[in-house]
Amino acid sequence: MDKVIAFKDVSWRRSGQEILSQINWEVKENEHWAILGLNGSGKTSLLNIVNGYNFPSTGNVSVLGHEFGRTNLPELRKEIGYVSSSLERFSQILERETVEEIIVSGKFASFGLYEKVSNEDWEKADALLSALRLDYLNGKSYNSLSQGERRRVLIARALMSDPKILILDEPCTGLDVFSREEVLFLMNEIVQNDCHLLYVTHHIEEIVDVISHVILLRDGKIVASGPKEEVLTDELLSEAYKMPVKIRWEEDRPWLTIQKDFEKIKFSNVKTLL
User: Fold this and answer.
1) Which of 15, 155, 176, 203 has the fewest CB atoms within 10 Å, i.e. the most exposed one?
2) Can you list the domains of the chain with their CATH numbers?
3) What is the pLDDT confidence band of residue 273, given thresholds at 50, 70 and 90?
């Protein structure tokens, strides 16, 4: 399978408004992508199509070799792992469970265990804890974990079903710097499992070295897509973020700053009100 994801001339409309317009995008084997853009740029809509929650209004979509319109989308979703800060809405269920129980539930795509769990399942959960260097959490309850530990456990849960694609939707939201780096460190372990990453973020410094490609969105359209070194430029990022920015690279990670002249012009009126 050469193409993991393929969008051809894809548009998506909601309530008569075009949210995504003429999206042409391919994710190939051994590529790991970051998805960047402002709020409202279309990132979530793009992910919802990959997950099969939204069906394109026009165009063709293929995910993991399954062409939309000719495949069972609920079955396809079993091959896609998903981690987001929004999963915390299930915290009332999660806080009653141990770390191992939460990880095993990923096999059944459920929150809470309602099916029989085999010894092999428990062993796999322990193996994931070990592989992600989370052994010290063995036997702990979810309600005793820090925010960073919770996010890492949810990543382990997503890996329980051996997904071919893992979507990390702003997984570092709300984390302090140390916890963020712990989550980012796991990226190196994840890609060893033949799993393709889609990493969504507002912060380009989270694009670690295992991320190979970037797609930039603005107002539902692609500004640029391709190898990160070609896409993460001052000009393209300024276009995507609607403001003049500069990028610098330190230890193979990009860092963004807003140009000072823009700050003076944009926020001068704010100062007069204070």
Assistant:
1) 15
2) 3-267 (3.40.50.300)
3) very low
